[in-house]
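Worked example

This section walks through a single chain of length 457. The input is the sequence exactly as stored; nothing has been trimmed or padded.
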Amino acid sequence: MSKNWSKVLKRAAPSNVFLVLAKRLMVLSRSFWALPTFLIIISSALVLFLVQLDQDLQYSNHSLLVLLNDLQPNAALSLMQVVAGSIITITSIAFSMTLVVLTMASQQFGPRLIGNFIEDRRTQWVLGILTATFVYCLLAMRAVNTQMGEAFMPGLTVSMGLVLAIVCVFTLIYFIHHVAISIQADNVIKKVSQQLGTDFETLITQNCNKFNQGIHLFEPDKCAYNQEVTSEYAGYIQGINYEGMAAYAKDLSGVIQLQVRTGHHVLCGIALAKIHSDVQLSSSEIDLQRFFIMGHERTPMQDPEFRINQLVEMALRALSPGINDPYTAIHCIDSLALRLSQLSNMDLSQALVLDEEDHLRVITRQPTFAGLLNCAFDQIRQHALDHVAVVVRLLEVFAQLLELSKKQSANHEAIMAQVQLIETACANLNMSESERQAVSCRLNACYESQSEAMKRE
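Given that input, the structure is written out below as tokens.
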């Protein structure tokens, strides 16, 4: 899903249904009830099917059925009761462990990382298997008849309950292992970094598919009317239907120039876009708000900065006096640099949306390399001055990014701006001679990369 959300398409579609559906699916993926509820329904249907099958085959003389039915109804009922009691105990342990993990994640990594643990499919599957098995046992107990003369022992149903109980035992063992692995800082950083890489791949695809010639062919000043459209609501922009907006701009015979992008927080009355057209439109004729999905929180949909902020928050908490874990901060810096290297040699600018006749209809506002770089390193740089090892690692990362961005002067300048800010801040710090030499050596490496880039120009 993440590879399709912000792809700028050449063909314009007027409906918001896919964007809204993507948001709903994202909400469902961040819930503990969706998958367990589905598995409970499946287990309930399985009980009904097996009970009916047991009734149809209760007089069969097949050797396997005779073996499965070789149990008294009272014993089968007691067995299901024991299994159900054991499973609900295991389920309570699993839920308790999950809550402990969420508490630790909130304290150590930040509250914005809780969603990553909630949407973990393996955790959802474990909770779903346990709760579904418990419901299965309850319904299986209802099918066992212990009355004299009407005794009925559903052998297939009870046997499946035993199989599910054994599965639950191994599921609990796996869950304990999974929890111990998932709470480790390195694995949390790796997962967020991979998600950020997917977001950047989408951004790269969008950048490669854009039509640069459109921006040169369009001159807003030549349009008779340039009307500003303001927001009717306050909140975060969670999604923009670019294709539907393009179709709407075609109906207006104009071009829509966005002033905001996904992830921005807007207030009522703040400009969302400008409509450039040769026809004057009344306020009642303009209905641009419907192409924006807004909410009370930022989401990763169409917002690459969301994952960057998660890594930054982890780094800042690691640098806080209460935790004081510079190695985790360095790992976050390395992950941010790895993902930014995907964009370091690219020119990110406005992406354009065309209609089916290849006419420019929407000029979007997209994140730039400089903006993403500042989002990633501004706060870390400001909080890292008390940790020389982190400062040194920042400079090493910037030197590597400078090496990769030699063909893009704008990206090169953005990186050098970060280097110069560190140099200014370090000049006023009390450091030992060895620490100052280490910082100076990395600064020299950055300036050497700058000199080489200027010679090539």
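What to look for: The chain has 16 helices and eight strands.
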